[in-house]
Write a structure and sequence with these properties.
It comes from Microvirga terrae. The chain has 396 residues and is an alpha+beta fold. The chain has 17 helices and 12 strands.
């Protein structure tokens, strides 16, 4: 790691990335820092609508404004086509698409996007890091290098692998939030507006602040508890995992993006509830929220009224598919699900395959993540047509 990027610089950059989870208005500045770290001239964060060939989110740094508009207005179909073709061939979205490595010189020479948007800025190569991918959309960060910087090398790929988990976690937590900014004077008010539970803790999981949703959860004893003002989960195993994640965030933020993106807080026979742990050791914004806090824990539950119901509505799931999904989200295996409903395992698998096909994911873990992302985050109306974070605003 030290050979790729100095530990202190890596920690500072990760701190800036996690600041964006709480204040998405910081993305442009952080993207500029990312581009500088990668020795790249331009960078963009986009959410690509595959059905309508448009950007739902288009944040950028280094791009000439006129060319950024031209990219959005004329070249999204070409970008979507090339990247989705490549994604369809990959076993994991962890792989990075590099123009110089994955497109032929003949294609690059003939590409309208390259000719009209990249060449005028002297961009000779782009590396794409994928944050999410479903049948309807994908999100990615694209880093472009100028001719004077040369093409993408092994260093940039390795650095991308280091930062990708943190970028994903920041965006995932942003899915939970719907606030434009949080300042210390208004922290309680802003956090209380969130439907999810939020708990700020010290290194020993001591509770420093909890919003109203979290206090209600703890008063019921589920899915989180307060044991002498120490945060605990619904099971001993989950409490240990939660404490490990908090300790890990406190002591080694540069690795905090590794491991499970979400911690299951309760038993498999209960509607699942999960926690995301956001490190708070570094980063300008987060250290102002609660000086002694080392972690912010975001707690959300997926149930029929939130994630599963919204998923069923969004992707036109049948009643049988919803039953299968509910059972899997409750922690049951496919075999247990089939036995419970008195159907063959092959029939249950067919239902699951249909769910995968409709939602555009290929793994149960991705299905859980998608369901969590559709959980209504804030006390207020939820726009089913725009389930991505509202705080990013309209595309540029």
């Amino acid at each position: 790691m030290g050979e790729v990027l100095a530990h202190r610089r890596l920690s500072e950059l990760i701190g800036s990335i996690y600041d964006c989870a709480l204040d998405p208005g910081r993305w442009e500045g952080t993207l500029a820092d990312v581009a500088e770290t990668f020795d790249c001239a331009v960078v963009s964060l986009t959410l690509n609508d595959l059905h309508n060939n448009r950007f739902l989110i288009n944040k950028a740094s280094g791009w000439e404004p006129a060319l950024l508009r031209l990219k959005s207005e004329r070249h999204v179909p070409e970008i979507n086509a090339r990247l989705t073709e490549w994604l369809a061939q990959q076993s994991s979205i962890d792989e990075m698409f590099v123009t110089s490595a994955h497109l032929s010189p003949d294609y690059i020479q003939a590409s309208p996007y390259v000719e009209e948007c990249l060449k005028p800025q002297g961009i000779v190569d782009i590396m794409h890091m994928f944050l999410m991918h479903t049948r309807r959309q994908f999100a990615e960060i694209g880093l472009g290098r100028h001719a004077r910087q040369g093409v993408i090398t092994a260093r940039e790929l390795e650095l991308g692998r280091l930062l990708l988990p943190h970028l994903r976690k920041a965006v995932t937590i942003s899915d939970i939030l719907d606030v434009n900014s949080i300042e210390q004077a208004h922290m309680a008010e802003a956090l209380d507006a969130l439907r999810c539970g939020v708990v700020l803790t010290d290194e020993r999981a001591g509770i420093l602040h909890a919003n109203r949703s979290a206090e209600r959860m703890m008063s019921k004893g589920a899915p989180i508890r307060s044991v002498r003002r120490v945060l605990a989960a619904g099971t001993s195993a989950a409490s240990r995992e939660l404490r490990r994640a908090i300790l890990h965030a406190a002591r080694n933020e540069t690795h905090s993006g590794e491991g499970n993106a979400a911690i299951r807080l309760n038993d498999a026979d209960e509607p699942p509830a999960y926690a995301h742990v956001l490190p708070m050791v570094t980063g300008d914004l987060r250290t102002r929220l609660q000086p002694n806090a080392v972690a912010a824990i975001f707690v959300g539950a997926t149930d029929e009224q939130t994630g599963i119901g919204l998923l069923a509505k969004a992707y036109n799931l049948t009643a049988a598919e919803v039953r299968i999904l509910e059972s899997l989200m409750a922690g049951h295996t496919l075999a247990e699900t089939a036995q419970h409903f008195g159907i063959a395992r092959s029939t249950a698998k067919t239902h699951l395959d249909h769910i995968f096909a409709k939602t555009g994911v290929s793994r149960q873990t991705e299905l859980v993540r998608l369901t969590m992302q559709l959980t209504q985050p804030v006390h207020g109306p939820f726009d089913m047509a725009h389930p991505w974070p509202h705080q990013f605003g309209p595309p540029s």
